[in-house]
Amino acid sequence: MELKHEPERIFFLDQAGKTVAEVTFPQIRKGVVDINHTFVDDSLRGQGIASRLMEEVVKTLREEGKQAVLTCSYAKKWFSDHKEYSDLQPKQP
Asked: What are the tens digits of pLDDT across the range 21-35?
């Protein structure tokens, strides 16, 4: 599998070029993205692929100085299990 980065999307392609896993994070305002979708093909589930995608997203956010709102249920759970990245979420008023 090949890991690819695009603005607002990180994904894995299989050998045929088909997207088999992805996470999307469109910008919703300056410096803030919405992690709104995570997908992993059934054939890859249980192999830590979604977690690898999240690790790539947090690396990208840190590099770009951005924060993330979480509307994807997987992203919410992943961030709750990885408190070391809580600084990447905007503070609630």
From this structure: 999 999 999 999 999
Q: Which domain holds residue 11?
A: 2-84
Decide if pLDDT at 93 tops 60: no
Can you tell me the distance from the alpha carbon of 52 to that of 32, in angstroms, rounded to the nearest whole number? 21
CATH of the domain at 63: 3.40.630.30
Cβ–Cβ < 8 Å for 19, 10: no
Rounded Cα–Cα distance for residues 4 and 60 (Å):
12
pTM higher than 0.85, yes or no?
Answer: yes
Q: Which residue(s) pair with 34 in the sheet?
A: 69
